[in-house]
Amino acid sequence: MIITKNEAGGLTMAEKNYAYLLRCADGTLYCGWTNDLEKRVAAHNAGAGAKYTKARRPVALAYYETFATKQEAMRREAQIKRLTRQQKLALIGAGNGSA
User: Fold this and answer.
1) Of 22, 54, 55, 70, which has the fewest CB atoms closer than 10 Å, so is most exposed?
2) How far apart, in whole angstroms, are the C-alpha atoms of residue 48 and residue 89?
3) Sheet of 60-67: strands edge to edge?
4) How confident is the model at residue 26 (pLDDT cuts 50, 70, 90)?
């Protein structure tokens, strides 16, 4: 777990990191990572997220996994991106970390 100093000089635990799958309005899936899941999904729906999702709004969170570090979340994102669509749908259906 990463520990950071807050504005008052005290120590706080860093934000969690997430790998996530979005279901786009056209039925496609988008995979990404973030350290603020709610804010990132809102950004995608506002058109300020990825170029891919901008034209496929609205998007809905379909699946996510939580990690302690950015590196773990990015590694999992890369693994999920290598899955086939059917494997991604199975992951969503499995419900582990499902939104």
Assistant:
1) 55
2) 25
3) 29-34, 17-23, 60-67
4) very high
| Token pair 């506002």: residue | 46
Residue 73: which H helix or E strand, with range?
helix 70-81
Residue 99: other Cβ atoms inside 10 A: 15
63 alpha carbon, distance to own chain's centre: 8
Signed CA dihedral, 55, 87, 78, 75: sign only: positive
Q: What is the pLDDT of residue 27?
A: 98
Which residue bears the tokens 């939580």? 66
- For residue range 58-98, list pLDDT tens digits in order: 999 999 999 999 999 999 999 999 999 999 999 999 875 65
What whole-number distance in Å separates Cα of residue 82 and Cα of residue 89? Answer: 13
Q: How far apart are CA 87 and CA 17, in angstroms?
A: 22
**Burial grade of 47 (CB within 10 A; 0-12, 13-18, 19 or more):** exposed
DSSP 42: H
